[in-house]
Amino acid sequence: MNADATLSRAKMVERILGNPTTLRFVGLLVLFTASCASMMPDNIVMRQLLGHNSSLNSQLNGSMDFQGCLLAGGWDPERGYGYPADVEAVLGFRNSPALHKCIASYVPELTWWFQLLAIVILIAVAGALYWWLPAWKGRRSRVVPLEEVDRKGDLRRLLAELVPVAELVRAPRFVVDPAAATTSAVVFGRPRRYTVCLHGGLVARRKADPEGFRGVVLHELAYIRNGDVGITYATVTLWRVFFFAVLLPYVARQVQLLFSDRFIHTDSVFSVYWAGRAPELTGEVLLSAFMVALLYLSRADILRSREIYADLAAVGWGAALQGWHHGAHGGADRSKIGSVLTSFAEL
């Protein structure tokens, strides 16, 4: 399929569905909420905030106490779950009140409203990080105003010509990162206050490769035109908050359980449950791993798709296709394994 046909098809999809990146971000937000809700009960930080005893004898943080209450209520762990005799033993009229009193006394509960509040706080933290990132990226110690680099004004005139080509009503602020040697650029900021940062290597190669310079700038302006700048940084902040505030504490909790009474000490109360609960516990961990994989792939899909739509927009505005072609010899020196790994990374 040639570039014109691809661009026409992309525009048709955008007219029917709106900005596809926006729909992908909605999916990411749903996955973020679902993953946080499913992993929150095993979040070691949340359990400490609830006041769970972290001593050696109670390092299962309520899990041992819950299993002990079941044993006291007449549960037979060797039969597993769902047997009528066990259900009658712990839920029947005779033992049920004592069981619930035992659980209420020794097993702190991670209530639904606490989980909901934690998710809201995580989203608020992501929002604060999203608001702070543009200021950090545009700090004076990293970038300089375009005027300090473009003394004659030639570069400013060229950029001013490209802004209407990209169908932008308001021109973004242009700055330069002189320490960046790559021939690239990056756009950041908030609505109506966007900044395009040109790397020093791109500015240096402007005259030697004018078409390449034009393509890179149009590509960055396409992010603004497509409304993908905010979605990009919201995606990045959501993933970082999830990774540090949810995933790492969850993994820490699993490591704690792995090397605690549950598995290592055979005299543990929980040890009698292990044979019957091994498939269930393994399934919980695998499900969490699957949710993390989905969330990561959703993040990667958003960042990749916005690149593709920016490329298509830049080509539609007249950017040379050579900027996206690496030539017939681009992978000639690669081994077969290297080519396979490169293709997988690009996918």
Order of helices and strands: HHHHHHHEHHEEEHHHHH
The major β-sheet equals: 4 strands, mixed
Strand line-up across the major sheet: 1-2-4-3
Q: What is the rounded distance between the termini?
A: 18 Å
Treating each run of at least 4 consecutive H or I residues as one helix, how many helices? 14
What level of helicity do the residues show?
55-70%
**Gross geometry:** elongated
- What is the number of E strands? 4
Name the beta content range.
5-15%
- Identify low-pLDDT runs: 53-62, 326-332
User: Overall mean pLDDT score?
Assistant: 80
Structural category is mainly alpha
Rg of Cα set = 28 Å
How do the strands and helices of this protein lay out in sequence?
Layout: H1 3-17, H2 20-39, H3 44-49, H4 63-72, H5 84-91, H6 96-106, H7 112-137, E1 144-145, H8 146-149, H9 154-165, E2 173-177, E3 185-190, E4 193-199, H10 200-204, H11 210-226, H12 229-258, H13 271-316, H14 336-346
Parallel strand pairs: 2-4
Antiparallel strand pairs: 1-2, 3-4
Structure description:
By secondary structure, this protein is mainly alpha-helical. Helix content is 64%, strand content 6%. It contains 14 helices and 4 strands. A 4-stranded mixed sheet has the order 1-2-4-3, with helices on both faces. Strand 3 and strand 4 form a beta hairpin. The longest helix has 46 residues. About 5% of the residues have low confidence.
